[in-house]
Amino acid sequence: MGHFTSQDYISCGSATLSRQIACAVIAAAPLKGHPLYIAAIAVLKFAAAQFNLRMKILEEAMSASLLLVEQSGYPLLLQTSEEMDKLMAAQIPIEEEQLAIASTIRPFMLITSPLAWLSLGNYIDSFNAQIDAHKAVLMHFEQLWEWKLATVTEVIDGDTFKTDVYDEPIRFEDINCPELDTEAGKAAKAYTESHLLGKEVELRARKRLDDYNRRIAKVYLNGKNFAYELVSQGLAKFIFIKPD
């Protein structure tokens, strides 16, 4: 991501100044009661309703994610990191719709409320920057991992298995199960095998393999991170696997 140059600041300042001058001119000759004003108000009310609807969608998505954290007792940092890219990917199209709505209604605000027109111009500038930042973060995510639907074809141990989409074994991210030569390790493998073998799972897999030629991945069964299920059953412990 680049930095603002002096020319960027000058352009932003000039744009803000021009808006302030326009506000002063329009405020001196208000159009209340004019048919244009009435039509503009109607458009603004409709646009505001659409804007609020999209904000509600975003809020519901974020609330659902937080509720999952609270109900499951999963580590907040891990849960937030795994949901972030999905939430952001869903958020960008909504943000772009919001921006389109804001750009559409802004001329009407010039008629109804010059100060609101000025504020909305500044809002559009900042919102554009926010969307660009979100896209940059997603681009970074996409360089690290990929999402795949896969069927589990073999369970090697409690935290490692094979699928029909990758040649190399899949290793659960964030957890570690006991070794297979222990009773706890055998129990972990049996649990994973009984729940995953032959099932379709969603993988968020790292693009680079680890030192043991395994693909580290978060594994979702029916929308839930299965690694956390192993931890809740006392069959695994949380660990941190450093990204390459």
Structure in words:
The chain contains six helices and eight strands. The chain has helices at 6-27, 35-72, 76-112, 114-144, 183-196, 226-232, and strands spanning 145-157, 160-163, 170-172, 175-176, 200-206, 215-221, 224-225, 237-238. It folds into two domains: 6-144, no CATH class; 146-238, Beta Barrel (OB fold (Dihydrolipoamide Acetyltransferase, E2P)). It starts with 5 loop residues before the first helix and ends in a 6-residue tail after the last strand. Helix 1 (6-27) packs antiparallel against helix 4 (114-144), helix 2 (35-72) packs antiparallel against helix 3 and helix 3 (76-112) packs antiparallel against helix 4.
How many domains is the backbone divided into?
2
Number of separate helices: 6
Global Rg: 26 Å
Distance separating the two termini: 22 Å
Query: Would you list the SSEs in sequence order as H and E?
Result: HHHHEEEEHEEEHE
Q: Identify low-pLDDT runs.
A: 1-17, 19-26, 71-79
* Fraction of residues in helix: 55-70%
Strand content: 15-25%
The spatial strand order of the largest sheet comes to: 1-2-3-6-5
What oligomeric state is this? Answer: single chain
User: Whole-number average pLDDT?
Assistant: 75
Secondary structural class = alpha+beta
Apparent shape: elongated
Number of strands: 8
Largest sheet: 5 strands, mixed, barrel
